[in-house]
C-alpha cells in the first residue's frame, strides 16, 4: 500500500515533547536538501510543528498566490489546487474537493502563513518525517522516500488503500466541521473541548453537513479484505446520527441543557469504545497485510474515529 505514512510511534512521542523549542531550532529539508527561510522560520506552537508554506511548496513546484482581502493562500500545481487560511484548509484534485488537516489549520506569524506538518503531508502527497534528534522536518517526494517508509512486501491492494483513505478523509471531515464552525457541542462529542463546561451552545446549524458526511461513511463500499472494517464505519455513522437527534431534541425543547449534555457525554463514551474496538480491528488488518502503518498524516490512523 502507498498511503503516506509518517512519524514512527517512538518519534511521535518525541514530536509532541518538543513544545517550547525555539523556531531557529527546527529545520526543513526536501529530498535531503535544506530549505532556507529568509524571514519567518519553522516553529512549534500548540504542541505542533509548523513550516512556512511559501518556501516549502515553491520548492515542491507549486505556484503560490496570496489574497490579502480574505487572508487566503492558493497553491496550484497541475490539476491540484490548495486553498489555505486560518479557518479552512482544502485540497481540490481532479475536481474533487476535501478538507485536509482535520481540526488543525494554518497560522499566521509575522505576516507569513505556516502549515502544520500533518497537513503538509496530506497536501503535498509527500512522505514527511520528524527527527527528534536533529529537529529536522524531512520531506521526501515519491521517488526519493527512504525504503523504511515504503511497503514493498505488503499484500494490500490499491482498492483497499482507497477504501481506508476515503474513510480517513470522511472522519477528518467531521473534525473539520467542528473546528471550522467552533461547534461547541460537536467538539464536546469528539473530545476536543468543552468537556467540563455546564453550559455550551448546542447548535443544529451544522447538522446537514454532519448528516451528509455520515451518509457517505455509512455507504462506503469495502474492497478486498477490508470488509471486516465496514461494520465499524456503519456504527460510527449511526453514532453521528444519534448526535444529530440529541441536538435536535434540545432545540425543540425535549431536553434541558443538563439532559442534552448528559446524552452527548454518554454518546461520546459509546464512540470512544467503538474507536478502541476499531483500532484493534484495523491493527489486525495492517498486520495481516504486512502494512507499515506507524502514523498517518502525523496522527495515528488507528484513532481516526476519535
Give a description of the structure.
- The relative contact order is 0.13.
- It is built from eight helices and 13 strands.
- Helix 6 runs antiparallel to helix 7.
- The model is unreliable at 1-24 and 293-300 (pLDDT under 50).
- The chain has helices at 9-16, 53-59, 117-124, 158-180, 184-190, 207-218, 230-251, 257-288, and strands spanning 27-30, 33-34, 43-45, 48-52, 63-67, 72-77, 80-85, 88-93, 96-99, 107-109, 112-116, 127-131, 136-140.
- It folds into two domains: 9-149, Copper Amine Oxidase, Chain A, domain 1 (2-Layer Sandwich); 158-303.
- It is 39% helix and 19% strand.
- With 306 residues, the chain is an alpha+beta fold.
- The radius of gyration is 20 Å and the shape is globular.
- The strands form three sheets. It has a five-stranded antiparallel sheet with strand order 5-6-7-8-9.
- The longest helix is centred in the C-terminal third of the chain and has 32 residues, at 257-288.
Topology:
Layout: H1 9-16, E1 27-30, E2 33-34, E3 43-45, E4 48-52, H2 53-59, E5 63-67, E6 72-77, E7 80-85, E8 88-93, E9 96-99, E10 107-109, E11 112-116, H3 117-124, E12 127-131, E13 136-140, H4 158-180, H5 184-190, H6 207-218, H7 230-251, H8 257-288
Helix pairs in contact: 4-6, 5-8, 6-7, 7-8
Structural class: alpha+beta
- Write down the domain tally: 2
Q: Strands of the biggest beta sheet: in what spatial order?
A: 5-6-7-8-9
Using the CA coordinates, give the radius of gyration: 20 Å
Provide the descriptors you would attach to this structure in a database record.
five-stranded antiparallel beta sheet, Copper Amine Oxidase, Chain A, domain 1, disordered N terminus, 8 helices, four-stranded mixed beta sheet, alpha+beta, 2 domains, 306 residues
Amino acid at each position: 500500500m502507498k498511503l503516506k505514512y509518517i512519524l514512527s510511534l517512538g518519534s511521535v512521542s518525541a514530536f509532541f515533547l518538543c513544545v517550547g523549542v525555539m523556531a531557529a531550532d527546527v529545520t526543513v529539508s526536501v529530498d535531503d536538501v535544506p530549505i532556507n527561510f529568509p524571514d519567518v522560520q519553522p516553529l512549534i506552537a500548540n504542541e505542533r510543528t509548523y513550516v512556512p508554506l511559501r518556501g516549502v511548496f515553491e520548492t515542491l513546484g507549486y505556484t503560490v498566490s496570496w489574497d490579502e482581502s480574505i487572508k487566503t493562500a492558493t497553491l496550484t500545481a497541475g490539476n491540484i489546487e490548495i486553498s489555505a487560511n486560518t479557518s479552512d484548509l482544502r485540497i481540490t484534485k481532479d475536481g474533487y474537493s476535501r478538507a485536509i488537516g482535520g481540526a488543525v489549520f494554518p497560522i499566521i506569524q509575522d505576516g507569513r502563513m505556516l502549515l502544520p506538518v500533518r497537513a503538509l503531508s496530506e497536501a503535498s502527497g509527500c512522505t514527511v518525517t520528524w527527527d527528534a534528534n536533529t529537529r529536522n522536518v524531512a520531506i521526501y517526494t515519491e521517488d526519493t522516500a527512504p525504503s523504511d517508509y515504503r511497503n514493498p512486501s505488503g499484500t494490500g491492494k490499491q482498492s483497499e488503500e482507497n477504501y481506508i483513505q476515503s474513510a480517513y478523509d470522511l472522519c477528518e471531515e467531521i473534525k473539520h466541521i467542528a473546528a471550522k464552525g467552533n461547534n461547541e457541542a460537536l467538539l464536546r462529542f469528539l473530545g476536543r473541548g468543552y468537556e467540563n463546561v455546564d453550559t455550551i451552545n448546542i447548535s443544529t446549524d451544522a447538522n446537514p453537513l454532519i448528516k451528509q458526511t455520515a451518509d457517505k461513511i455509512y455507504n462506503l463500499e469495502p474492497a478486498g479484505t477490508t470488509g471486516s472494517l465496514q461494520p465499524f464505519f456503519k456504527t460510527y455513522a449511526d453514532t453521528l446520527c444519534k448526535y444529530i437527534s440529541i441536538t435536535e431534541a434540545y432545540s425543540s425543547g425535549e431536553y434541558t441543557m443538563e439532559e442534552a449534555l448528559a446524552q452527548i457525554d454518554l454518546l461520546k463514551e459509546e464512540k470512544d469504545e467503538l474507536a478502541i474496538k476499531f483500532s484493534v480491528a484495523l491493527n489486525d488488518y495492517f498486520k495481516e497485510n504486512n502494512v507499515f502503518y506507524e502514523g498517518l498524516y502525523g496522527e495515528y490512523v488507528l484513532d481516526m474515529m476519535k
